[in-house]
Amino acid sequence: MVSLELDRDHREDAPFLDTPESASHAESKPAHPERNAAPSTITFRLKVILFAMVLAVEIGFSFLDGPMVRILESIACRQYYTEADPSQIGANGQVPESLCKISEVQAELAAARLWLFRTVCWQIGRGANRPSPGGIPGFAINSIITIVVLRFSNIFPLRAVWVSSLAWLIGGGPVVAFAIIWTMMADVTTELERAELFFQFGIVSMASEFISGAFSSYLMAMNPWVPFLIGFGIVHIGLMFILLLPETMHAIPSRNLEPEPSPVEMSELSDAEPKPQFSNQGQYHDESSVDVASGHHDHLTWSYPSQQRHTFWAKCRAKYQYYMKPYLFILNRKPVILLLTSFLVYRLSRGSSWFLSQYISTRYHWTLAQANMLVSSRPTISIPVFLWVLPWLKRRVLSPRKTATEKDLWLARASILFLTVGTLGIGLSPSIATLVPAMIIQTSGSGFMFLARSIVTTLVERDETARLYTVIEILQSVGNIVASLSITGVFQLGLRLGGFWIGLAWMMTSTLFCMVGAAIWWFKLPPTSTPRVPEFVVGGSGIAPFLPIPSEPLGLQAPLRVFLFCFRLPLFLFVTLAYFLILQWLPIGSLGKKAALWCILGVPSIWWIDLQVDGVRKGSLSKHQQARLPQPGSLIASSFTSPIDAVYLAAIFDPIFTASYPNTRQVERISLLQAVLRAFASPLSRPEPGTKLVDVASLIAKYPTRPIVIFPECTTTNGRAILPLSESLIGAPNKTKIFPVSVRYSPVDVVTPLPGSYISFLWTLLSKPTHCIRVRIAEAVTIARNPLDTPPARSTRKSTYNTNYLDTLDELAADGEAVMEKAMLDHVGESLARMGRVKRVGLGVKEKQDFVRMWTKTRSTW
After folding, report:
1. What pLDDT was estimated at residue 110?
2. What distance in Å separates the CA atoms of residue 244 and residue 242, rounded to the nearest whole number?
3. Which terminal Cβ of the chain has fewer Cβ within 10 Å, N or C?
4. Residue 596 is inside which H or E element, if any?
C-alpha cells in the first residue's frame, strides 16, 4: 500500500488565511517535479488530440463541400425545370449538370446556402464563456435535419434546410468548435512558437483538404451522396475528440508580469449571470456593485426582493450589458479592432474561393467534379510554403533583431500582396493556362490568416483568447455569408456582361484584398512597454503637452457611437466639401459663410458655447461692452489644440488666418482650409522654401475690416500646457489690440497633438453624442513703443575713444523696447495659461519634432 502524506493545508479544516508560519513554510516548500512537468505533458497530449481532431474535421468538411453544392444545385435545377421545361428532366429524375448553370438556378442555389447565415446568428451568444463540448449533439441534430430535407426534396422545399440552424442552440456549432481548437492552441504556446504551431495545423488542414478533396471529386462523378454522407460521418468522429481534451487555461503562466491579484470571494469567480438584488429602498444593483472591501456592511440588506416592477426596456438593457461585458476588452483596444476588421474583409474576399469550383465550372465549361479536383490541388503549393518557405524567410531572411511578432507582421504583409495579385489574375484569366499560375500566386499568400491570428493573440491576455477566437470565427462566418450573396450577384452580373467582365467577382475581391492590405500595412505593433520620455515631460509636474489624450472606452455605448459615426460621416463630408469647394467662393457675404460654418459645427452637435470675457459678467455683454471683443484691425492670439479652433473663430469673427514660426516676426497668410489642415500637419521650426512671409502690420493695413488670427504656439498641443510664444505678436503696430483667446473642449479628446491623426479625430468628433466649446477672451493688451513703428538701429560706428553718453541713448531705447515686447509676450502667455487653467512650459516646436519622431517609431497615428 502506498502511504500518502496529508498536508495540513489541504485538509478540510485548513484556515483560509495563511499564518506567518504557514507562509514561511510555503516559501521553503520545494516545487513538485510533477507540477513542473504538467505543462509539457498537457501540451503533448493536446497536440496529439487536436491534430487528430483537425484532421478528421477538415477531411469531413472537404468531403462535404463539393457534394453539398452539387446536391443543392441538382435539387434547385430539378425544381426549376419542373415548372419551366419538364422535358429536360431525365428518367432518373435529374437534370444534366450542364443545364444547371443558368442564372435562375444559381440564384436559388445562393438563396438556399443562406441557411449558413442563420447558423451564425444562433452561435453569436455562445462565446461569452469558454466553449464547451455541448455542440456535439447540436451538430448531430443539424446533420439529421439537413440530410432529411435534401433526401426528401420532393416533400420539403429546398429552403427548409434553414431549419437545421436551430440545432446550433445546443452548443454553438462549428464556430464554437473551431474557437475551442484555436483557444487551446494559444493556451499551450508562447508568442515565439505560436505562429509555427499554427502553420503546422495549417499544413494538416491543407493536406487533408487535398487528399479528401481529390477523393471526394472522384466519388462525386459516380454519386454525390456517397462523399456527402462519408463527410458527415468523419466530422462526427472528429468532434468526439472534444471529450478527450484537457483543460488548458492555466497550462502556461500568463504573459502578464504584474503581481498576483489579491484574494477574492468565491462568488466573484462565478461565471453565472449576476443576480439582481434590491435594497430596502427598492434600488436595483448587481452583486458586483457592492463594495465589500470598504467595510460598509450596514448598507447591505438580506431581505427578500421588493415588489417593485422593472420596465421591459430596463430588463433588455440589463441583458444587453450582461452579454456585451465579456467583449469590452475588444472594443477598448484599437489595434485589436483594426486586425479584426481585416479578418472580416479578408473573409469577404476569400468568399470568392468558396465559389471557385462553381466559377471554373461555369466559365470554362468544366464539370463540378473536374473543377473541384483543380481547386483541391492548391495544397500542393501551400504545403511547401508553410513547411519550408515561410520558416526559411522567418529565420534566414528577416532581421534577427526583429521579434517573432514583428517577423509575423512582415510575412503577413507579403502574404496579402500575393493574395491581391493572384486573385486579380484569376478574374482576368481568359483560359485555364493563365488561371493556374494565378491560383499558384494566390495560394502562396494563404498563410495570411494564420499569421494574423498569431499577431492578434499577442494583443490580448490568455483568459481572453476564447472570446477573441469566438468573435473571429463569427466574423469569418458572417463574411462567408455576405460573400455568398454578394459574389453570386456580381458573378451573375459578369455573366450577363460577358467577355472581359466574366471575372468581375474576382476583380472585386482583389479590391477587398487591397483594403485588407492597407489595414495590415497601416497596423503597427504596440510597444511592449511604455517608452520613457523624460525630456518631453515638464519637471515633476508630469505635464506632457504632446501626448494624445486617451479616448473614453467604447464600453456598452459601442452600438450607439458606431451608429452616430456612420450616420454623421456622410453628412459631415457633404457639408464640409460643399463649403470648401463651392460656398466659400460664392458671393454670399460674411453672414452666409458663417451660417455654413455653423452647419459644419452642427453636424457633430457642437451647439453649446460657453463664452466668458474678462471684466464682463455672464449675460451682460451688451453693445456698450463690444470693445472687449476682437474687432476689425485687432489681433487674436489663440490657443491651438484642434482643427475646430479655426472653424469656430471663422464662424464668429470672419478673420484672416496666419501661420507663425519660431524666431521670426513675420507670418504666413493662410486660408481657413490651410488652418484646419495645419492642425494635422507636422510642426515646422522654419518656413519651407518658397513660403511667402509678410509683416503683421502690412496684413492689418491690407485687411482693415477683419481681425487677424495668430497661433503663437506655432503647433498644436493637447491643451494641457502653453508652449513658448512666437515673436510674430511683436510685429503688431503700436497700440494694436491683442486679444488672448483660449478655446477648450468637453470632452477633451477632440484635440490633435500628433500629426496625421485624421481618422481618430473624425471618429472622436462624430461618434460622441455632443460636444461643448469653452471660450475665454482676456482683456486686450497693446505694445507701448517709441513713436516710430520700428526700433532704432544700433550704431555700428567704430571709435578709438570712449563712448559718449549721448551715443548710448539709442541702445538704451532699443533695450527698453525689447523688455516691453518680452513683457507683452509674457502677458499673453500668462493670460492663455490662466484662462485654460494650465501652466506655461519650456517645450517648443523642436521638442515636438523630436517627440513625433520617437513616437512614430513604435506607434501608428490614425
Report:
1. 64
2. 5
3. N
4. helix 589-602
Helix or strand (DSSP H, E) at 657: strand 656-659
pLDDT score for 177: 64
What would the pLDDT profile of 737-750 be if each residue is shown by its tens digit? 999 999 999 888 89
DSSP string, 194-257: HHHHHHHHHHHHHHHHHHHHHHHHHHHTT-THHHHHHHHHHHHHHHHGGGGPPP-TTSS--S--
Q: How many CB atoms lie within 10 A of CB 737?
A: 18
Element (H, E) at 744: strand 738-746
- CA dist., res. 736 & res. 783, Å (int): 7
3-state secondary structure of 35: helix
Burial of residue 362 (number of CB atoms within 10 Å: 0-12, 13-18, 19+): buried
- According to the model, what pLDDT value does residue 799 have? 43
The structural domains of the chain, ordered by start, are 36-254+328-522 (1.20.1250.20), 555-789+826-858 (no CATH)
Show contacts of 199-205: CB within 8 Å, 24+ apart: 199/386, 199/387, 199/390, 199/391, 199/447, 199/450, 201/50, 201/51, 201/54, 201/450, 202/382, 202/386, 202/446, 202/447, 202/450, 203/383, 203/386, 203/387, 204/51, 204/54, 204/55, 204/58, 205/54, 205/58
Closest CA to 372 of 690, 808, 62, 136: 62
Residue 119 φ/ψ, nearest 5 degrees: -60, -45
Around Cβ 736, how many Cβ atoms within 10 Å? 19
Side chain identity, residue 458: T
207: left (phi > 0), else alpha (psi -120 to 50), else beta?
Answer: alpha
User: How far from 577 is each of 574, 593, 600, CA to CA, in Å?
Assistant: 5, 13, 10
Residue 239, Cα to own-chain centre: how many angstroms?
Answer: 33
State CA 45 to chain mean position distance.
36
The CB density around residue 586, as the number of other CB atoms within 10 Å, is 10
State residue 45's pLDDT score. 74
Determine the pLDDT at residue 12: 41
The string over 305-329, giving b where at least 16 C-beta atoms fall within 10 Å of a residue's C-beta and e elsewhere, is: eeeeeeeeeeeeebeeeeebebbeb
User: Residues 707, 688: contact at Cβ < 8 Å?
Assistant: no
pLDDT of residue 259: 42
Pairwise CA distance, residues 751 & 314, whole Å: 35
Q: Along the chain (862 residues), what's the average pLDDT of each consecutive run of 10 residues? A: 41 45 44 48 71 79 79 85 84 80 71 53 42 58 82 81 68 60 68 66 71 78 85 83 66 46 38 39 38 40 48 72 73 80 74 71 78 80 80 79 83 89 88 88 85 85 77 76 71 74 83 84 68 55 81 74 89 94 90 92 85 77 72 93 94 94 92 94 90 92 93 93 91 89 91 90 90 91 62 42 46 65 90 92 90 79 69
| Phi/psi of residue 53, nearest 5 degrees | -65, -50
How many Å apart are CA 229 and CA 64, to the nearest integer?
A: 8
Evaluate whether 173 touches 138 at the Cβ level (below 8 Å): yes
Tell me the β-bridge partners of 37: none
Nearest to residue 508, comparing CAs of 355, 343, 340? Answer: 355
- 632, 571 contact by CB (below 8 A): no
pLDDT value for 456: 87
Residue 544's closest CA among 721, 710, 685? 721
Name residue 763's amino acid.
Answer: W
Grid coordinates representing 238 are: 472528429
Letter string b/e over residues 483-513, b meaning 16 or more CB atoms within 10 A of that residue's CB: bbebbbebbbebbeeeeeebbbbbbbbbebb
Backbone phi, psi, residue 713, to 5°: -75, -15
Q: Which helix (H) or strand (E) holds 637?
A: strand 635-638
pLDDT per residue as tens digits for the range 514-559:
888 888 887 877 765 544 555 556 555 567 888 888 877 776 677 7
CA distances from 861 to 179, 247, 517, 562, 640 (A): 32, 40, 17, 20, 19
pLDDT for 252: 52
